[in-house]
Design goal:
Blueprint (H helix, E strand, L loop, with lengths): L3 E9 L6 H9 L6 E2 L12 E2 L13 H4 L4 H17 L11 E6 L5 H14 L8 H5 L3 H10 L5 E2 L7 H14 L5 E8 L4 H9 L29 E9 H6 L6 E10 L12 H14 L6 E5 L6 H15 L7 E3 L2 H4 L6 H15 L1 E2 L16 E2 L5 E2 L4 E8 L3 E8 L2
Parallel strand pairs: 4-5, 4-6, 9-10, 9-14, 10-12
Antiparallel strand pairs: 1-7, 1-8, 2-3, 6-7, 8-15, 11-13, 14-15
Helix pairs in contact: 3-6, 7-13, 10-11
Length: 411
């Protein structure tokens, strides 16, 4: 079976508008969460989020095109350009039919929908933009990225809530593994920090209400956690078939070995009891990888800072790994950047890849008093943890009962 390696990374997050800045600040344990600046939150119960800062899309994207792209698609294209440059691949030299694009987005062009719907209500249907539909639909994340380089291989967007970005990476892995493409540009993008979205998530009581302590609001596995913090951003990963990458002398970050995807079949927002869906997702990923449970050195958890997710993900890990669970180092990237929904799995996959490359695990901040139900796990906190990582898992769990795990290996 064909092997799949990682050759390029791109990212835009609340901690930085590129991979290097984001990674440097993750290692320092800095938070990108703050009071919302993009709109007036006076009437909102929740007033904090992980916003992307200092973003000028025209630095990388044609100004005329920028006006026709929702912020979500701008993020996707921005991070894809960085990833392609990082991979040092000139697509014009290869068969475009063998290069695919698979990018996840849980919600898509929400800010466009909000703006145009307001216009529709206040000014009538004649004033709605003719670009509403192509700016709003989720698949334009992958669509515009493929158009930018004229890529003609498998092309679509995965939509599975908070697991969307991870689903995209897993599907891209399989597309290459089974021979349908040699290269796939993959990842996730989301720009859902909007007035309407904030109200919806807040009213379902999913969000932290620590408005006076934004940087301390996201507290995965902490006893005093009170909900997740909304965020935005994107990450892109270039995947290549190993021989293809070797032939062009590409630098290889690591290798994807396995992809596990399961459904809870239980509840629209709550995870299955005891995290049994997440347990099966991890087990499937490990089984496909060909390694054993004891080979796993590190897990980048979904770690949302919500009551049920954290304790059930912890339970899933304990149930699957047994005594070995205590030997696995874990962390939660969302403690610093919040929850970027459909982009989260992709951003966390980038963090996992860099942890493998550099032999270091970033800390989980705000974990001051571990929840007793999450005890028995080695969650990195305080300082970065030096760790030689042979095999790692990255978990993503979404509303609707979608569970995804990606198994990665040092190359």
């Amino acid at each position: 079976m064909r092997r799949v390696v990682i050759t390029g990374l791109g990212a835009i997050t609340p901690l930085g508008n590129n991979v290097k800045t984001t990674w440097d600040r993750l290692l320092k344990g800095e938070s990108g969460i703050d009071r919302i600046k993009a709109f007036d939150t006076s009437d909102h119960t929740v007033k904090i989020a992980g916003e992307v800062k200092g973003f000028n899309p025209e630095e990388r994207i044609n100004p005329k095109l920028v006006r026709r792209l929702d912020r979500c698609v701008q993020f996707a294209l921005w991070s894809a350009i960085e990833a392609v440059e990082d991979a040092k691949i000139d697509f014009s030299k290869y068969d475009a039919d063998r290069i695919g694009v698979i990018i996840g987005s849980g919600i898509g062009g929400l800010s466009t929908w909000e703006a145009e719907h307001t216009k529709f209500l206040n000014q009538g249907p004649a004033r709605v933009s003719p670009f509403l539909i192509p700016m709003m639909i989720s698949d334009m994340t992958s669509g515009y990225v493929s158009i930018h380089w004229g890529l003609k291989g498998p092309n679509y967007t995965t939509v599975s809530a908070c697991a969307s970005g991870a689903h995209a990476i897993g599907n891209a892995f399989r597309v290459i593994k089974y021979g349908d493409a040699d290269v796939v540009v993959t990842g996730g993008s989301e720009a859902s920090v909007t007035p309407f979205s904030l109200a919806g998530f807040s009213n379902m009581r999913a969000l932290s209400r620590r408005n006076d302590e934004p940087q301390k609001a996201s507290r995965p596995f902490d006893k005093k956690r009170d909900g997740f913090v909304m965020a935005e951003g994107a990450a892109t990963i270039i995947l290549e078939e190993l021989e293809f990458a070797n032939q062009r002398d590409a630098t290889i970050y690591g290798e994807i070995l396995g992809f596990g995807a399961t459904g809870d079949g239980f509840h629209i927002t709550a995870p299955a009891p005891e995290g049994e869906g997440a347990r099966r997702s991890m087990a499937r990923s490990i089984r496909e990888s060909g390694c054993s449970n004891e080979d796993i050195d590190y897990i980048n958890t979904h770690g949302t800072s919500t009551e049920l997710n954290d304790k059930f993900e912890a339970r899933a890990i304990k149930d699957l790994f047994g005594a070995h669970a205590k030997k696995i180092v874990m962390n939660a990237t969302k403690s610093m950047i919040g929850h970027s929904l459909g982009a989260a799995g992709a951003i966390e996959a980038v963090a996992t890849i860099l942890s493998i490359r550099d032999g270091v695990v970033h800390p989980t901040i705000n974990l001051e008093e571990p929840d007793p139900e999450c005890e028995g796990l080695d969650i990195a906190r305080g300082q970065p943890r030096q760790l030689k990582i042979g095999h790692a898992l990255s978990n993503s769990l979404g509303f609707g009962g979608h569970n995804v795990t990606i198994c990665l290996k040092r190359f």
